[in-house]
Amino acid sequence: MGGKGSKSNSSTQSLQLSSSEQEILKRTFAEINENRPFRLEHWQKYLGTNLPVNFVRGFYHLLCGQAEMKADLPVGYPAFMATMVRILKQPPTELPEVFVVLASGGKRTVNSTKVYTLVGTLINSYTTSIANTSEYRSWNGKLEYIFDEALVCYIINDLVNPGAKKNEVISNPIPDINFDEVDISGWLAKTPLMTYLWSAIFYHHFPIADVDSGFPICANEEPIKSTMFNASLVFILNQCLPYEAKREWFQLYNSSTDGESFSVMLNKILDKGPTLILIKEKTGHIFGGFASQSWQINPSFRGTSESFLFSVKPKFNLYDATGYNNHFMYLNQNQQTLPNGLGFGGQLDYFGVWLNADFGTGKCSPTCITFNCPQLSAAQEFEISAVEVWRVGSEPKDEAEGMRDDGSILDGNPEAAHLLEMMGHKQVSKGLRDKNEKNRAK
C-alpha cells in the first residue's frame, strides 16, 4: 500500500468501487496536483484549514504506507486509490488503526489530548461541512458554531474514564493517558456516534456516495427568531432520537418569543407528538428531556422507555430509562390534590425534572431512579430563565377533540369524575370503553 502500491493492487482495490465512484476519486486525484503524484504540501492545500495538522499528516502517512512519518514521499494514483478504498470501503475493524494514525500524526499510539483534539475537530468539521445543506439553511442562521468542550468530554469519557459511573463525566484538562489500537477499538465499538461522524466527514471531502447529513430540518414555515441550541448539540441529540423522529424538528414554544406562560405553552405542545424540552435556569445550568409521546393532561405518568433526560451545562450527559419504573412523563393542571405542572421521571412531588404550572419556578430531585440521573439543576429548586419545546418528527395526523388515546375527557380530571360518581352519575362510557378494549385484545 502507499508509496509502494502496485497497479495490480490498485486494480484489486478498485473492484470494491463502482465505475462512478472510481471516476470521482480519479477527478479528486487530478485536482490535488494536476494529475501528478503529490506531496504533503499539495495534500495540505487540498484539504484546507478545517482539519488539524496532525490529522492531515496522519492521512498522508497512510497514503505513503510508512510505519511512521519519516519522509515526504510522493503519492501516486495507485497508492491514493488503495488508501481511499481502505478508509471509505473497508469494514469497521480497519477504523481503530486509521483513527490512531490520524490522531497521532502517523504513530502507533496516541495520547488522550490528541484524541480530544481530533474528536473536537471532527465535530467542528462536520458542522462546517453541512453549512451549505438545505437542512442547515432551514434553521435561518440561528444555530451558532461553537467548540463545545462538554460534548467532546462526553464522547471520549468511556475511553479516558473507563468503568466510571454514568454521571461521572470528565472535564478539561483531561488525564494524560496513552492508547493503542485495542483501546481505541473497544471505545469505538461503544460509541457509534464516532463511526457516523467519521463517515460524514470523509464523504464530505471525498463525495463518492450520498450520505445522509444526520442533521434535521427546521420545519417551521416562519423562520425561528432564536434558540438555545447550537449546531453540535442538535446533531448529538438528533442521533439519540428514535429513527422516525430524526428527520425534522419544529419549534412549538419558545418562552423568549411566545411569553412566559404555562397555559400558552400547553396550548402549543398538547397532542403534537414526541418533543424535546430544553430548560435554562438563572444560574446558567441547561438541561432537558425527550418525551417519547404526545403531551396530554393526565393524572398518571405516560410515555415509553425511549424517553430520556440530558444535561448540557455545566457538563453534557445523557440519562436513559433504567426500567425501574414507567414514570417517564407527567402533565396536569387545575387539580386540588395532584401536582400541577410538567415533569419527567421520579414520582409525584419528586420528579427528575419539574416545571411548576405557575411557570416561574421548577425543581429537580437529587436523584431520579427512572433515568438514574443526578440533580440536573444547581439547587433543587430553581428559577426559570428560558424554556423551548421542539416537536421532533412529523406532526401526528390525528388530533382528537376531547378524547385522547381512546379516553374520555373525564380521564384527565379524576376529581370531577369522582364527584360525578358521588352524585349518582355513573360513567356509562367507561364501561363501554372497557368492553371495547377487551374486544380489541381478543
From TrEMBL:
Question: Any stretches that span the bilayer, and where are they?
Answer: none
TLDc domain: from which residue to which, for each copy?
227-393
> Which PROSITE patterns does the record match to this protein?
TLDC
| Start-end of Basic and acidic residues biased regions | 431-442
**Principal subcellular localization:** cytoplasm
Give the PANTHER family listed for this entry. Answer: MTOR-ASSOCIATED PROTEIN MEAK7 (PTHR23354:SF131), NUCLEOLAR PROTEIN 7/ESTROGEN RECEPTOR COACTIVATOR-RELATED (PTHR23354)
Q: Protein name, please?
A: MTOR-associated protein MEAK7
